[in-house]
Design goal:
The protein is mainly alpha-helical and 126 residues long. The chain is built from seven helices and two strands; from the N terminus they run αααααββαα. It has a two-stranded antiparallel sheet with strand order 1-2. A hairpin with a 6-residue loop joins strand 1 and strand 2. Helix 1 runs antiparallel to helix 2 and helix 5 packs across helix 6. The longest helix has 18 residues.
Length: 126
């Protein structure tokens, strides 16, 4: 069976179950890696560092991280996963990174709202 048929079957099955299970099915192994902590969302890192940022600022930090990742990987995007938004509960498609990915820490220094978090005291926590 080719890959497009397999994906079509997964999507067909996902449409017939609850929304949470559908998004979990679509994300598959990536969602499992996020739950285990081998991949993290940008918000997960900010939570670990104790950053108290509004959703709009967290979104800009994510954009800075994506830009740094693309610069380091010849224009390629990071892996995406479906996740529930932390305040609205809506399902959104977000990039995930390895916890030690340099793009996460480059973005801390390039985004002015998180620049203070890149100091040694904070990054030791992560």
């Amino acid at each position: 069976m080719n890959i497009s048929r397999r994906i079509a079957r997964i999507h067909t099955a996902a449409r017939q179950v609850s929304k949470a299970l559908a998004y979990r099915t679509r994300s598959g192994l990536i969602a499992a890696a996020v739950e285990q902590g081998t991949l993290i969302r940008t918000g997960d890192l900010l939570d670990r560092l104790g950053a108290d940022l509004k959703d709009g600022q967290r979104s800009w930090y994510g954009r800075h991280t994506a830009k740094a990742y693309r610069a380091a990987h010849l224009g390629a995007d990071a892996v995406k996963v479906w996740a529930q938004h932390r305040t609205t509960g809506k399902w959104i498609h977000v990039h995930v990174y390895a916890p030690t990915d340099p793009a996460l820490y480059t973005a801390l220094t390039t985004y002015k709202a998180t620049r203070h978090l890149s100091q040694a005291d904070f990054t030791e926590v992560a």
